[in-house]
Amino acid sequence: EAEAARMRAHFIGQLIGFDFSESRHLSGVLDDARQLRDRAFRYAAEFFADASRRHPILLYLDDIHWADDGSLDFVDYLVRQCASVPMFVLCLARPALLERRPAWGEGQERHTRLSLRPLTKKESRQLFEEILRQARDVPTRLREMVVGGAEGNPFYVEELIKMLIDQRVITVGAEVWSVDESRLGEVQVPPTLTGVLQARLDKLTPAEKTALQRASVVGRVFWDGAVGHLGAKLTGAIRRETRAESGGLPAGGEGGAASSVLERLRRKELIYRREASSFAGAREYIFKHALLRDVTYESVLRRERREYHRRAAEWLARQSGGRAGEFAGLVAEHYERAGELPEAAEWYGRAGRQARETYAPEAAVNFYRKAIEFAASAGGAEGGPAAEVLRARLVEWHEGLGETLRVQSRGAEAAAAYEQMRAAAEALGDRVAEARAWNGLALVEAARGDNRAMLESTKRAAELAESAGEGAAARRVFARALNLQSQALTRLGDARAAMLLGDHALSIASGLGDEARHERADSLKSLGMAYHALARFEQAESCKEQALALYRELGDRVLVGNMLNSLGETARSRGDFERAFARYQEALAVAREIGNRPGEMFYLGNLGAARLGMGDYAGAEIDLRQSITLALAAGYHGVSENYRFLAEALLGQGKTGEALEAARRALGLGREFENKEHIGEAWRVLGLVAWRTSSAINVGGDEYDAPSCFAESLGVFAGIPLEAESARTLRDWARYESEHGDTADGRKMWEKARDAFQRLGMTPEAERMTEGHEVAEEKPRKAVNSE
Q1: What CA–CA distance (Å, rounded) separates 165 from 185?
Q2: How does strand 57-61 pair with strand 87-91?
Q3: What is the mean pLDDT of each run of 10 residues along the chain (787 residues)?
Q4: What separation in angstroms does the CA of 676 have from each of 82, 408, 448, 459, 569?
Q5: Is 48 exposed, middle or buried (0-12, 13-18, 19+ CB in 10 A)?
């Protein structure tokens, strides 16, 4: 229990910016930001759910319009996952939130949105009287001046009263406040809130105004040490002018120099001090309102801003230390405003890496693109003072951008990023990086279902990696290229070549020791896929079990689920539907536990296929339809097999019209993604539909009867070859021939199929074809309704 709690803490800590990269619990998933994010979300939600069993929870989140997208995603996830626990989540935000997320929170069963309207005149007067409750004989003229100008804005009411206090129209006493009506006539009331805030700034002492201006450069959240540092390091004319304007604000001693002035500003309620600080030894403050910070920043002389921003960047970079990634975006922004483009590029690159590692993809894309843009502007692309360093960084940033875009299924953009990475690596003469770029392109092509393009990219990657020498990095990239090539060949039907490549990759990975455990597991997975396609099921299962054990050692739960599902596929292909069902259930449980929605989509479809094999046609239809819906909603259209299973489930219930449409869809998708196995399977189920309807069916404008569909299926499988699938088609064709009077041909096909099942070790399938289940007894049931 303690170890499980430690594991959850490490996932959550890594997500929010702490460095747990050395944790053994994270060793296998540090490169899988999506899995890390999903599991951290789940574990954090479980924490709140567990806590709510002791006491109801009120979670109060203020100013969430400032929250990053990842934080908003977590709040949304938390509300969904904890819908049944006693927890109340209260979020306060300005309308800017709904400009970013117009539908945020909608669709939640217990979600309520309350929009705060401007105060009425009556409410504004009540607020005025509450603030001045200690004042005696408040002139009506003052009340109308404040209430009339506010136009229902409570912040305006508060700040205008504070402006009047600054101008000594209102005198604040310990117990009683007073109003000097003689001064009231001299007051010029600004017509806008900005004007009121500017008037308040003008009444500050020079030291207070300078401190507030420096704080505004740091940001809405700032630290006394940073404010002091901005004053301590100015040089030349700017420093002399600033000291003259500061009225004696000390320049040295970073934190202590500014603290007393900041405390005066706090008492005037221009800023607030936070109890906890992000940095040890520094007090953390926040401007009362974002508009106040903006107004103050605009009052900073432009000639001072660049120097201030440079110093703010230096202070933050020094203070962040081991948490540099967490503050990298802020440091980069300061360097950008300072005009220090090489430094801005470097820190935006760090920010991109941090955002990618914590699965904040939109932020990562934005940061990487800025890093690339500023590197080019600084001369990194065409020569400059730090050309070599920036060129090497460009390779890294293009790769990070490509990976981020790829996992978001933004294929065209990802491919462009990998192409730019390849060109940058080629210019540097870095063959290993160039090979990584080709591997990245191969993964984009795999997601598109373009297996031939994937094959060509992996060949280029393998050639480059092999020519790069015997270094560990080159060998690992080479093994990865061979694995991806093997998987492409398996899908294209050349399982024997795929097997040889998988074996080669395994040999390389095994020679690299523990540092290549992931590549070794991937090689075993590739071998398992190839053996499966060759119907060598015992070897397939052995390889997949070894890969499963390695993925468990690495702690990669996504790939654990993937291999459990793959083992289910092997069991189902052998005809052991009960064992397959159990494996799919295990995989589905893992996917749901870690929030792996793509995995859930695939495993649910395979679970439906297992139900189909066990004769639960209605249950299979439910699972398959749900899987298809999830896939299409996620933008994934490679669901040919799901439609084929759905067609069989519909046939089992006598829904032949729906079955025909599903089978046609399966064939179309199989052709679109050039998956020959799926094409052959679709033709087989089309043959079953034609048999059931006792008439030819139209496919692509041509008419096909059952035998011609079965013949198409066998032709596809013969060209791959896939003996197990050929045997299934022969078995179904034999049943058809037996029913239609050609018993001799039916018997030959039957025996050939049974011999193939026995030879391939598909014992459950062979047992179903024993003497007790002759051809004549294997006829499909008559349709309940033929639509």
Answers
A1: 15
A2: parallel
A3: 89 84 83 84 92 92 87 89 91 88 78 88 92 88 86 89 89 88 82 90 93 96 94 49 42 60 93 90 92 94 93 93 85 95 94 87 94 81 59 93 90 95 94 97 90 96 95 95 96 92 96 92 96 92 96 90 95 92 95 82 94 95 94 81 96 96 96 90 96 92 95 93 91 91 85 92 86 45 34
A4: 44, 27, 16, 21, 17
A5: middle
